[in-house]
Design brief:
By secondary structure, the protein is an alpha/beta fold. It has 17 helices and 18 strands. β13, α14 and β14 form a beta-alpha-beta unit. α3 runs antiparallel to α6. The chain folds into 2 domains: 236 residues, Aldehyde Dehydrogenase, Chain A, domain 1, CATH 3.40.605.10; 193 residues, Aldehyde Dehydrogenase, Chain A, domain 2 (3-Layer(aba) Sandwich). Strands 10-11-12-9-8-13-14 form a 7-stranded mixed β-sheet, sandwiched between helices. Helices cover 44% and strands 17% of the residues.
């Protein structure tokens, strides 16, 4: 750990430290505004090595922060996802950095036109608690690939993870390249009010709106990865047992604390009871007949109270709640099994809020038109899942709905395929990262037009009305309609 990092640790005034770090990174970027491809790849390869070295410590820290989280689950979701991302980025970076040659208008034939991708500067990354490593390193990988510096604001409720991640990053980056903030701030705007060149925020739509408003004071562009109620549509032609297994896995992973978790299932009315039975048996097959060590805990008491309040509200309004395992709060604490909710109505909170926990409402439908109308009655979700072997049926659903991304016949896997963009639409977010789209999101696309030496663009200068101008306008605009002028007169 270098001296600058020790200074970083000794400062107690968080706003002053954050302002100092930003000024340091801004100055460093001004001094070296365009790192080469090899410099960027060197940083990414160092980060890749650290992910591998620190995987056990990171998994242990995340389990400590959650109360319990399987080390294997953490490695699959946070570490392996990050490794896939960095590998893809390293292998494609040089191609992404090449200028994109474009065609000039016919009017400017023989000249050249290209788009270059220029680093923006200092990127602010705001990380949620549910996947603190993957959702910190994913935007960081993209920011470094685009040639930027980065400041990472970690969630205050994951202190063990934050400490290990800081140690891991400080070994390979000076704080003028990558810096981390982990403690609770007196005002959440302290970080977002800085004049970053771009902000990447992952979290709730409510907080995303605050981030966007604060960033607007500096005209800072934002990428918002939010959430919403992501539906899973089970069609009549799809095997019910398989659909139930995959939706259960999506909702049980990280105890449903995932922005792309299946938030509710739409099931043909006549198959609802069988679907519920299969979800329950799928959960038991994964975690045993009693709450076991492989089930991730709800992250803290506050979040557990919110989940219980959602279930209490549903019960009070006539819902049926079916826990997949016996759950005794006094005994099991935050190790909460999946709870299936049926007989849902629109006034229940479980049908209005993103659940972000081990709850799965199951909603019956009669026709696909009914299912599509139900999806479209709410905000655009971050993800949509369709279980169907009928191509025409799938395409009809995709054409008539909107979502950030889609996985067909499974859940969530579109997120960790890093050659494709990941992002939301409408209430579920704006902008993307991952892949070339992420690289371009955190780069400035700079158009460069070059006039060839003898190209006579001066023919279009005043005085107007010369022969070349008349011929050119006639060629591109055609003839005006004289009758329109007569009507005006």
């Amino acid at each position: 750990m270098n001296d600058s990092t020790r200074t970083f640790r000794l400062e107690n005034d968080a706003p002053a430290r954050i302002a100092r770090l930003f000024a340091l990174q801004h100055a460093a970027f001004q001094a070296a505004p365009y790192p080469s491809a090899s410099e960027r790849q060197t940083k990414l390869k160092a980060l890749k090595k650290q992910i591998s070295r620190y995987q056990d410590l990171l998994a242990e820290a995340m389990s400590k922060d959650f109360g319990y989280r399987s080390h294997t689950e953490s490695k699959i979701t946070d570490m392996m996802g990050s490794m896939l991302d960095v590998n893809h980025t390293i292998s494609h970076l040089k191609r992404w950095m090449k200028p994109s040659r474009r065609n000039t208008e016919l009017l400017f034939f023989s000249n050249s036109l290209k788009v270059t991708y220029q680093p923006k500067g200092v990127v602010g990354i705001i990380v949620p608690w549910n996947f603190p490593i993957y959702l910190a390193l994913g935007p960081l990988i993209t920011a470094l690939a685009a040639g930027n510096r980065a400041m990472i604001k970690m969630p205050e409720i994951t202190p063990a993870t934050n400490a290990v991640l800081e140690r891991m990053l400080c070994e390979i980056f000076n704080e003028d390249e990558v810096a981390m903030v982990g403690e609770e701030l007196s005002s959440p705007n302290v970080f977002t009010a800085l004049p970053f060149n771009h902000i990447v925020f992952t979290g709730s739509p409510a907080v995303g709106k605050i981030v966007m408003r604060t960033a607007a004071d500096n005209l800072t562009p934002v990428t918002l990865e939010l959430g919403g109620k992501s539906p899973a549509v089970v069609t009549r032609n799809y095997p019910l047992i398989d659909a139930a297994l995959r939706i259960t896995h999506g909702n049980a992973t990280n105890s449903g604390q995932i922005c792309v978790s299946p938030d509710y299932a739409l099931v043909p009315r006549e198959r609802l009871n069988d679907f519920v039975a299969n979800v329950k048996s799928s959960f038991i097959s994964m975690f045993g007949s009693a709450a076991g060590n492989e089930s991730t805990w709800v992250v803290n008491e506050r979040h557990l109270a919110r989940i219980n309040a959602l279930l209490t509200d549903a019960l009070a309004k006539g819902a049926t709640v079916i826990p997949c395992l016996e759950y005794i709060a006094e005994r099991d604490g935050r190790q909460m099994p999946l709870h299936i909710v049926t007989n849902c109505t629109a006034d229940m909170r479980v049908m209005q809020e993103e659940l972000f926990g081990p709850i799965l409402p199951v909603v019956p439908y009669d026709t696909m038109d009914d299912a599509i109308r139900f999806i479209n009655s709410g905000d655009h979700p971050l993800a949509l899942y369709c279980f169907s072997h009928d191509e025409a049926e799938r395409q009809d659903l995709l054409r008539r709905t909107h979502s950030g991304g889609v996985t067909l016949n499974d859940w969530g896997w579109h997120v960790v395929n890093h050659d494709a963009p990941f992002g939301g639409i409408g209430n579920s977010g704006m902008g993307t990262y991952h892949g070339v789209e992420g690289f371009r999101e955190l780069s400035h696309a700079r158009t460069v037009f070059k006039r060839q030496r003898f190209f006579p663009s001066q023919w279009f200068y005043p005085p107007y009305g010369n022969l070349v101008q008349r011929l050119t306008l006639g060629f591109f605009l055609g003839k005006a309609d004289p009758s329109l002028k007569k009507k005006d007169e």
